[in-house]
Amino acid sequence: MDDTMNKSAYQRNLEKVPPCYRKVVDDLDVQFGAVTHDLWVADRLNVAPSSVDFAQSIRNSDPDELTNRELDYLAFTAITTMGGVPTLKFVLPRFFAAYFASRLEGWTVAPDAMLERLQLANVEEWTPLEQLAASRALLAFAESELALLREDVASWKGDPEKAVDVEISAAADWATQRIASLSESPA
C-alpha cells in the first residue's frame, strides 16, 4: 500500500522540501507545528468581514490538509484580516513547507509582506527560539526569491547581478540583523 495516502498535505510538503531548506522548515515545525490558529475564539469568527467566506470554507478542514492556495491566502492575511499571532505562528511552518516544496507555484506572499506580518505580531516579544526560527525562514525565503529574480533576469539575457528588489532585500537585511542579534544574546 502506498504510504503517501496516509500522510497529510503538510507531511507530503515536508517530504518535498529540498535539503538546503530542510533545517529552516524543521525548526519552524519544532517551534510552531503544534500551534493552533485563532480564526475562531469561543466559537466566534476572529476575522475581518472580507475574510468570513474563506474562514468558513476551511472551518471543518483538517489544518494539515489546507491546500497551498489556502496556506498562501492565510499567510497573506494573517494578523491583518484573519486571526492574530496564533494564526501567524500556525501558518509559518505550513506555508514555508509548501513554499519550499514548490517555489515556482506563483505565491501571493512576498518576503516583505511576511516581514510586515512578523512585525505586526511583535516577533521581538516571542521566545528567542521562535524568533530565530521565524527570522531564518524569512531570510531563506528572501534569498530564494532573489535567486528566482536573478534566474529570471538571466533568462532574458540580462545581468543577474543587477537584479535587485528593494523590498525583498530589506526583508533579507532585517532577518540577517535579527539573527545576528539573537546569536549574540545569551540563551
Walk me through what this model shows:
The protein has 187 residues and is mainly alpha-helical. The protein has one domain. The chain is built from 8 helices and 2 strands; from the N terminus they run ααββαααααα. The protein has helices at residues 9-16, 19-32, 52-58, 68-77, 85-101, 111-120, 128-155, 166-184, and strands spanning 40-41, 44-45. Strands 1-2 form a two-stranded antiparallel ribbon. Helix 6 packs across helix 8. The longest helix is centred in the C-terminal third of the chain and has 28 residues, at 128-155. It is globular, with a radius of gyration of 17 Å. 34% of the residues are buried. The mean pLDDT is 91. Residues 132-159 form a coiled coil. Keywords: Coiled coil.
In short:
The chain is an all-alpha fold and 187 residues long.
